[in-house]
User: Fold Oxidoreductase from Halorutilus salinus.
Amino acid sequence: MPWTADDVPSMEGKTVVVTGANTGIGYHAARVFAEKGADVTLACRSVERGEEAADGIRGGAPDGSVDVRELDLASLASVEGFADRFTDDYDALDVLCNNAGVMAIPRRETEDGFEQQFGVNHLGHFALTARLSDLLVSTDGARVVTTSSGAHERGEIRFDDLHGEKEYSQWGAYAQSKLANLLFAFELQRRFEDADVDAKSIGVHPGYADTDLQRRGPEMEGSRLKLGIMKAMNAVVAQSAERGALPILYAATAETEGGVYVGPGGFMNMRGYPEVQEPNESTRDEETARRLWEASEGLTGVGFEIDS
Assistant:
């Protein structure tokens, strides 16, 4: 039988954070967590849009709670502020969903001078996880779920040009960030295991899901042609955002090992029900993962030792 949202167990008493939860797969994952009784924090760049999303969730979640907090992953100061306020208010974190992201946009820089796709998709989430690591380590059975993409297979970590200052490709930068997501997820699992910590780190991808993610690049370029192509592809090929959220829900709640990769198991892994899959072999390169971890600590100024 296929695994669906109906298979998510009771989440009563669980605390969950979902980044980018006001729209797309993040919204639908947060909605199911709340419906199953979890206390869910929607970590959103726009509090206004987050509150609109929360209003759409609360009516169907009588046993859960929904909290909206500002988090701009393009700002390390915002990440630090979010983490400080969250740790002041909560004493546990059962599930952290590193979900928010940007895709194939013209070159922009974050507040801290990072190329935006690498900065938001990877470095922002790296810093967030680091700043919440004490809560994660102290919560029995905590899980960190990091959203990647099938585009990771075309990625390369360009240590000599991480921010695309010498050469920039919209899709190349996106692929690099998605490879970085999995290298981080699997390295985090190794560090959990080395420290004998009762926690799991899992990478996921949503397949081709119909979300706002695809339109932002064409809109920033002002390309009506590309925007039209994206809309047509979403209509013909994509599965729903609700279905695209299933790998996150599976990774966060199903019986599975840490350090695995979960995605839809249907046509070309672009749609279907979630299953454990094998990512590109480059994601298992421990030396590259170690170098990326060290570079990420240096760039963010956030380091963490995971102690049991």
User: Anything to note?
Assistant: Strands lie at 15-19, 39-44, 65-70, 95-98, 142-147, 199-204, 209-210, 239-240, 261-264, 274-277. DSSP finds eleven helices and ten strands in the chain.
